[in-house]
Design brief:
7 helices; about 150 residues; mainly alpha
């Protein structure tokens, strides 16, 4: 456990060497105002969790990731507003329903992508023109039949 003096000293040194890079990177991604806010929020998170973050190989990278994830709702809202300005005029209930549906499909997409071995074979990736992921399942007959076999309860 770090003493308060050691914690404060190491964090001040970290902020001195990292804050500008973090702010510039986040400003480039999210604009100057939101970039400053995201950097400040990330550093506040860093201070609160410094004892754990201090030991990481790349604490600045971790805080950049925290800040980027924290800025996603703002970025999503801005993108939706830019793509479809009428969205901003919808009632709050409708906005929430749309955002919920997008989140559900995003989570499902991530899940299916992570377990693509249940649905796709190496041949499927090859035919589509995509690179074959590590550990892809070699084709062992009719792909649809193979998928059905895997989905049947044991």
């Amino acid at each position: 456990m770090l003493s308060e003096e050691t914690k404060a000293g190491s964090f001040v040194e970290f902020v001195t060497t990292t804050e500008v890079r973090l702010r510039v990177a986040l400003s480039a991604a999210h604009g100057p105002e939101r970039g400053r806010e995201a950097a400040a929020e990330a550093l506040a998170y860093g201070w609160e969790h410094w004892e754990r973050i201090y030991t990481m190989d790349n604490p600045a990278g971790w805080l950049a990731l925290v800040a980027a994830v924290g800025a996603l709702p703002f970025l999503g809202y801005s993108l939706i507003g830019a793509i479809n300005p009428g969205f901003l005029d919808l009632p709050t209930r409708n906005k929430r329903a749309i955002v919920f549906a997008v989140l559900v499909f995003t989570i499902l997409g991530i899940g299916v992508g992570a377990r693509n071995d249940l649905f796709l074979t190496c041949e499927d990736f090859k035919v589509s023109g995509n690179d074959q992921p590590e550990g892809c399942k070699p084709a062992s007959g009719e792909p649809a039949q193979e998928t059905l076999r895997l989905l049947k309860p044991a």
